[in-house]
Amino acid sequence: QVQLVESGGGLVQAGGSLRLSCTASIRPFSRYRMGWFRQAPGKEREYVASISWSGGSTYYIDSVKGRFTISRDNVKNTVSLQMNSLKPEDTGVYYCNGVGESKIGLWNWGQGTQVTISS
Description:
By secondary structure, the protein is mainly beta. Helices cover 0% and strands 46% of the residues. The strands form two sheets. A six-stranded mixed sheet has the order 2-10-9-4-5-6, with no helix packed on it. It has a four-stranded antiparallel sheet with strand order 1-3-8-7, with no helix packed on it. The termini are far apart. The model has no long low-confidence stretch (mean pLDDT 96).
C-alpha cells in the first residue's frame, strides 16, 4: 500500500507564502506523474497542480497559475508545492497523490496538510 505523507501547511495571512512537501513510498517514484489536490470546507476535492515524471511538464488550474509552483525530487521521492500570494480561497486541506489520465488520485489518500489563509 502506498503511503503519502504531506507536511508544511499552516496559518498565514493573505499575501503570504507556504511550501508544502509530500513524501511517497511508491517505487519507482519517477514512473508517475504527481500532483496536488485540495479540499475546501464543504466542497469536493479538486485537482490543483501536477508534474510529469521528469519534471519537464507541469499543469496548474487557472486560479493558481503564476502563484503556485510544483516541483519534485525523484531521488528523495518528494513532490513540493510552493504557494505564493496566498488568498483566503486557497484555504483547505492539501493532498498529494499520483495522477491518472482522468486527473484523479491513483492511490489511497494521506492525511493531508491544512492550509488556512486569513484575510
